[in-house]
Amino acid sequence: MDKKCHSDENKKWSALDSSNPHPSFKNASVSEAAAQESKTYQISEESITIVDSADVEVTTTDTKAALSIQAALQAAIVVIISISIADSE
After folding, report:
1. Residue 52: left if φ>0, alpha if ψ -120 to 50, beta else—which one?
2. 2 has a pLDDT exceeding 60
3. Distance between CA atoms of 35 and 49, rounded to whole angstroms?
């Protein structure tokens, strides 16, 4: 004979308890959807004018790659935070 101390319906959900599925899994009408869009526009113009000089070396650095990496990292952080917030609700 199987005895239970508490009813399964009164049991609170816990992520550590594999015997009790998440409440949203019991309801077939619950659906999840997400959409994310990230756009980055980069325009750079550079003009260097050297007048009346000899033996001059000019070195420039294009920062587009660094800005692209920064934008990608920011988008990844937003995704991670969004997932964390959604999991906590």
Report:
1. left
2. no
3. 47
Q: Is position 11 within any domain? A: no
Residue type at 25 in one-letter notation: F
* Best CA proximity match to 37, nearest among 10, 75, 66, 6: 75
DSSP string, 54-84: SS--------HHHHHHHHHHHHHHHHHHHHH
Domain contains 85: yes
Structural domain including 71 reads 64-89
Residues in the chain: 89
pTM of this structure: 0.35
84 in a structural domain = yes
